[in-house]
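Quick note —
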Amino acid sequence: MRIDVISCVPELMQSFLSHSILKRAQDKGLLEVNVHDLREFGTGNYRQIDDYQYGGGAGMVLKAEPLGQMIDKLQAVVQYDEIIYLTPDGKTLKQGEANRLSLSQNLLLIAGHYKGIDERIRQLYVTSEMSIGDYVLSGGETAAIVLIDALGRLIPGVLNDETSALTDSFQDNLLAPPVYTRPEEYKGLSVPKILLSGHEAKIHEWRHEEAVKRTKDRRPDLLDD
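Predicted structure written out below.
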C-alpha cells in the first residue's frame, strides 16, 4: 500500500512514522508513506499557502492553488483509490471503514490546517472526508497519523501474528475481552481459571462472553449497530 500525505508541517509526522509497527511495515516493503510539504507550491518570500477567508471572520484558510497544484503533480504519477480530507466535519472513522480502506493500493490524505481548506478543493478533488472524533485539533496531521496507523496494522504481514488485528476492539462491533499475563496471581487477584485450562473452545467461548458483557456495559451503542 502507498499512502501520500499533503501537509503544512510534515515534520510533525516523521517521528511517528519512523518507529514501531509502521517502521517495520515500511522496512518490509508492505507500506510506503510519503509526506509532501505543501509549501513547495507556496508563493512569495515566505512560501505563503494560506489567506484570509472571504466574508471575514477569524482563522486562515489553505489556498486552492497550492493544494490543487500539488494534487495535480501527485496524480500525474499515481492513480489514487481515494483522496481523503481529514476534517472534523467528515464521517467518523470506524473499524469497518479502516478494514475497507486497508484493501486499497494508493491513498492520498490531505491534512487540513488553520480554519480548513478552500471549499473548491473539496468539490474538485476530494472523494471522501474523514474525522477521528467530535473534537478539533490544531491540524490534520494527527488525524492522518491515526488513520495510517489503523490501516497499516491491517496489511497482511505487518503484524507478527496476523490474527491479532482480527481480535482487536471494534472488530465484529465488540470491545476486546480482558487479557492477562504472568504472574498468575497479583495483589490477591488471580487469572480466571478457564484461561489456564488449555481448553481452546471453552476459552474462546469465555472471551466472547466477556467481550459481549464489556460492550453492553461500556459501549451498548455498538450492539445497536
